[in-house]
Amino acid sequence: MPGPPPKREDQRRRRNKHPDGLATVTAAGGKRPKLPRVSPSWHPLMKDWFRSLKESGQSQFYEASDWQTARLLAEIMSQELNSGEPVKASMLGEFNRAAASLMTTEGERRRLRVELQSPQAEQDDGKVVSLMDRYKEKLS
């Protein structure tokens, strides 16, 4: 989808149908895969990146093939970073595209219509409503 990422669901004014006519389809996923270990040979940045995937909310949607994709990305980028030469822009671009396919950015998650809510945001929702109620009371 070209252009800027869509707004979050709670920031939209209208609830239009998806322009492509797409609907959410659910399918039974495989059993929760055993997560691959961080390789000691990986570059420290790639170790941190891979560990962050394990802690990220979108990882609950990952199948075994997604984890292997992440493992391959970490391996290839580690080789590039450990080579001692500057990282090529084309390699970085390919990494970003592949990482985006794993929903690692907020924009990509919005494009895929996946929204992650922090526990703090759920608690704050009630406060926002009560503030709006007070504001309405003052105006009426």
UniProtKB/TrEMBL annotation:
Q: Where is this chain compositionally biased, Basic and acidic residues type? A: 1-12
Descriptive protein name = Terminase small subunit
**Pfam families from the entry?**
Terminase_7
Region labeled Disordered — which residues?
1-39
The domain of life for this entry's organism is Bacteria
User: Lineage of the native species?
Assistant: Bacteria, Bacillati, Actinomycetota, Actinomycetes, Mycobacteriales
Q: Which organism is it from?
A: Corynebacterium urealyticum
Matching entries from InterPro entries are given as: Terminase_7
